[in-house]
Write the structure tokens for this entry.
Amino acid sequence: MGGNTHTRILVADNDARVRAALHTLLRQESAQVTVRESADVGGLATLIKEYKPDLLLLDWELPGRPAAALLFALRGLSYSPKVIVLSTRPEAEKEALDAGADAFVCKGDPPERLLGSFRSLVQESQREDRPQ
């Protein structure tokens, strides 16, 4: 996600309204963002392989394969996308972070919370990309 390159974001949520809102919010945050969307686990798996997102916004309740299993599978990739888990259930935070998510945002939180997590992960990635 670092440097002056575009940040590739994949939004995975079965609710079209949530995907559209997140897409709009992230595009307003930065012109350096490209956003793709997936409504289901099948489409998500394909997009992850082809699109190689820098950041995955993952609905914890996405129908199909459990999100925790998907996070585990991501560890086997040759690259490491950052993951922000989204959920309507605040009590899912510990489980999501324990499963490997980089951040957790409740869907009821103000948009600033998601943007704060997004900015933090972008800054973290930029520090990781700098030569030592």
